[in-house]
Amino acid sequence: MAKALIVDDALFMRTMLKRILEENGHTAVGEASTGDEAVQKYKLLTPDFVTMDITMPDMNGIQAVKEIISFAPDAKIIMCSAMGQQGMVLDAIKSGAKDFIVKPFQADRVLEAIQRVIG
């Protein structure tokens, strides 16, 4: 199945997403807790898709999306947002993200977004 890079500053959220992915046949090839780390790991791991938190220290998720899209225009990035971050989600989509999921994560919605972006 697909290889994922999971990006979130909260270990709890990364762990939850990793479990949903792995229980459904995907592989988490890497994790990052900041936008900067996400960009570096994307270059290193070239995952099939990325789950990207919006709010993180140093470089936020929207900046990280722009950075990744600048060198990998076909990157498949799914934004992870808390309720009330719709404006930021729209910015992320305009910047190149392909879909979004809302916290707290619901497994069926996560899998639906993955299916949509990887085909």
| Helical residue percent band | 40-55%
- End-to-end separation in angstroms reads 12 Å
- Range of strand content: 15-25%
> Sheet bearing the most strands, described?
5 strands, parallel
Q: What is the strand tally? A: 5
Instruction: Decide which structural class fits the backbone.
Output: alpha/beta
Q: What's the total helix number?
A: 5
Global mean pLDDT: 95
User: Shape from CA axes?
Assistant: globular
Report the uncertain regions.
none
Description:
This protein is of the alpha/beta class and 119 residues long. Helices cover 48% and strands 21% of the residues. The chain has five helices and five strands, in the order βαβαβαβαβα. The chain has helices at residues 11-23, 35-45, 61-71, 86-95, 107-118; strands at 3-7, 27-32, 49-53, 77-81, 99-102. A five-stranded parallel β-sheet has the order 2-1-3-4-5, with helices on both faces. The longest helix is centred in the N-terminal third of the chain and has 13 residues, at 11-23. It is globular and about 30 Å long. It starts with a strand and ends with a helix.
